[in-house]
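Researcher: I'm preparing a figure for a lab meeting and need a structural model of a single chain. I don't have an experimental structure, so a prediction will have to do for now. The sequence is pasted below. Please return the structure as tokens so I can convert it later.
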Amino acid sequence: IVSAMSSLTPPIPLGNPGNQFRVEYIRSISPLSDFEYTEDFFQHVHSLWEDEGVKACFERSNEYQLIDCAQY
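Model: Understood. Here is the structure written out token by token.
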């Protein structure tokens, strides 16, 4: 979802720009195959799900590829 935010037309900014470091964290661990899901990971994901920009991007998921169970 956070990767799609900038690719949509018009792009969707984060509701809280202070969450950018959370996006960077998620992007930094996504290519890791042996990542252990820590409490930090879950806190970052939870905070991003609360972000109005992420919510808006999720609502536009018909405009990009997103698995059906993403919200769960």
